[in-house]
Amino acid sequence: MTQTSDTTSYKDIKQTVLQRIRSGEWQPDALLPNEQELAVEFSCTRTTVNRALRELADEGFLERRRKAGTRVLSAPQRQARFTIPLVRDEIEAAGGTYRYALVSQETQTAPDWLTARLALRVDQRVMHVRCMHFSTNTPFQFEDRWIVIDSVPQVEQADFSSIGPNDWLVQTVPFTNVELTFLASRADATLAGFLDVSEGEPVFTAERITWLQGQPVTFAKMYFAAGYRMSTEF
Amino acid sequence: MTQTSDTTSYKDIKQTVLQRIRSGEWQPDALLPNEQELAVEFSCTRTTVNRALRELADEGFLERRRKAGTRVLSAPQRQARFTIPLVRDEIEAAGGTYRYALVSQETQTAPDWLTARLALRVDQRVMHVRCMHFSTNTPFQFEDRWIVIDSVPQVEQADFSSIGPNDWLVQTVPFTNVELTFLASRADATLAGFLDVSEGEPVFTAERITWLQGQPVTFAKMYFAAGYRMSTEF
DNA sequence: CAGTGGTCTAGACCACATG
DNA sequence: ATGTGGTCTAGACCACTGT
């Protein structure tokens, strides 16, 4: 029904399985028939059943173990997938006009807390960049970023007056591991000025540590203007 | 090398492709060889190459289009996958002892803002539950939840004095769609009391709306104690 | 139109975990 | 020891889309 043809596709199987879970036909913790039996029921090959069940397991609905079989997860381990947008995209998607402004850029010895946080060697040098992102000239995000010079030597020649450090890094360091943290912090006087809020106001904050093959590359704190919400559906 | 045998697996291919992206051999926006060519290079079938590339696309590294081929994404759309833990699991995983306490439970007519938020009919009735989650007797989370009675009629007989509403819902409503939002809010006097912080302090907050086949089931605001961080790696 | 990925089949061998 | 999922092969047809 879903497609032009009448073959049973892995998508059909996924839908049917979800339907049976929703309807209670397959209760939490219930053991599903094995792949061979389902293949017979759906008149397809085991390969097709395998793909359907594998994806459902990947999405957090099922648990699969060799020999033990496939079960409905009792506490559906649903996973939220946040696609972390680039600031510019996020602003433009909301209909705003993006504007970037550099606040400060200087090389310095890494402060102690950063050395500890990124497991740097003592006295390792870093580039410290602070900048603002505006949506139609309204403050949107204040970014406070450190870049480890030993990991990205080219950064010493970089000029962040017209391109944001994140855009620059994305072009320069092709692939990375990321540790992302969300928290609520309190606007100090400086931050309050940048974001145009009162001192002491709550500020939604994201911290992002980036690694390139085990080497710490950058630590960024991103402070969002009042009213910001990070949303997802799943 | 990775396995006992010497066959090229889709995992090997994924690793190799990532390596080539990291090393810059395949620059952002570069067009990869097509599946048939890669199958020859890796001495495997196109099916195996397909799985490797399909997963990498799914993970946000590649973009695939029929006829146009497979490209390295210029701005790697990495997706953070938050596994939203049950409060009890989260506390116990951190080594704490979980304690639950009901604060209030009553049925009422949905307030206007909730009617709007969940697209309810006017004057629809809801169960309003407020409760606390403690980690070794330290406040961990204050939960403020509304449950739509028409969507879950059994809730009128539910007693949340010993089981949390979330645990109850997970057992009762097997499968749902979820809209999850993170934000920073400000502790009012009531909240400050529950979480043992000063009034006005920033509070990390999660809002969760749950739907069952298009029907709104529940809206929950979860306020976390000071210092809470929501982290993920990817 | 033609090239590329999307998917399915039929069959096989194997890794792993449980009884 | 054995049943279950994990993966690969070899081949096929098709859907989409850029030229």
UniProtKB/TrEMBL annotation, chains A, B:
Alphabetically list the UniProt keywords: DNA-binding, Transcription, Transcription regulation
Matches recorded under SMART domains? HTH_GNTR (SM00345), UTRA (SM00866)
Which organism encodes this protein? Answer: Ruegeria conchae
Q: What is this protein called?
A: GntR family transcriptional regulator
| Entry keyword annotation includes Iron-sulfur | no
* SUPFAM superfamilies linked: Chorismate lyase-like, Winged helix' DNA-binding domain
Gene3D superfamilies named in the record: Chorismate lyase-like (3.40.1410.10), Winged helix-like DNA-binding domain superfamily/Winged helix DNA-binding domain (1.10.10.10)
Entries under PROSITE patterns matching the protein: HTH_GNTR (PS50949)
What Pfam families does the record point to?
GntR (PF00392), UTRA (PF07702)
| Ranges where the HTH gntR-type domain occurs | 7-75
Output the InterPro entries linked to this UniProt entry: Bact_HTH_transcr_reg, Chorismate_lyase_/UTRA_dom_sf, Tscrpt_reg_HTH_GntR, UTRA, WH-like_DNA-bd_sf, WH_DNA-bd_sf
Domain of life, per the record? Bacteria
Signal peptide annotation: none
Gene Ontology MF term list: DNA binding; DNA-binding transcription factor activity
